[in-house]
Amino acid sequence: MYTSPAASWLAAGIFFIATLSDYFDGYLARNYDSVTTLGKFLDPMADKLIVTAALVMLCGMARTPHVPAWLVVVLVAREIMVTGLRAVAAAEGLVVGADELGKYKMVLQSIAVHGLLIHYTYLHIDFFAAGMFVLWLAAIVSIWSGVDYYVSVIRELKPKPIAKSARRAAG
Question: Residue 20: how many CA atoms within 13 Å on its side-chain side?
């Protein structure tokens, strides 16, 4: 919540370490074939927590310009809806990990949060403006991936029609 340039860099550095550790966790799990069902659930959850926590904190900061709260609400609502659908799918025995679009969304959100945390202009780069630009891209990909996720999961969860021969045998 401190708004000084030094505090901004420190926050961005801590966020960078967190995103880097998340990347290496996934990399090691995939390369050593240790991807688990629990990991498929917890990894996207950890991504959502760190990004949404940072965005919510950025909304509440007393500095100008600031991250629009309505944009953060849209992003957080998408995360809650996808997490809820993931829980419904899991209850039906369908484990759905993060898809390619979801990974792009996470990368864009992480880049945006870094720029927004740094906030100030350095070397003629307005980090806040750059962060907002990438956050807009992330919002577009986020909504797109959320709709794509819903369509694919709903398609998988839709009751399958029973063949006529199976109905006769059951009746």
Answer: 7
Which phi-psi region, left, alpha or beta, contains residue 33 (left: φ > 0; alpha: ψ -120 to 50)? left
Distance CA 109, CA 103 (A): 10
The whole-angstrom separation of Cα 40 and Cα 29 is 10
Nearest partner of 45 among 111, 94, 96, 114, judged by Cα? 96
Q: What angle do CA 4, 6, 10 make, to 5 degrees?
A: 115
pLDDT (tens, 9 = 90+) of the chain, 171 residues, equals 777 778 888 888 899 998 888 888 877 887 888 877 777 777 777 888 889 999 999 988 888 888 999 999 999 999 899 888 888 888 888 776 667 888 899 899 999 999 999 988 889 989 999 999 999 999 999 999 999 888 888 888 777 666 665 555 555
Q: Are 142 and 73 in contact (CB under 8 A)?
A: no
Task: Return d(Cα 163, Cα 134) in angstroms, integer.
Answer: 49
Widest pairwise Cα distance in the chain: 76
- Residue 50: C-alpha distances to residues 19, 76, 139, 152 (Å): 9, 11, 16, 26
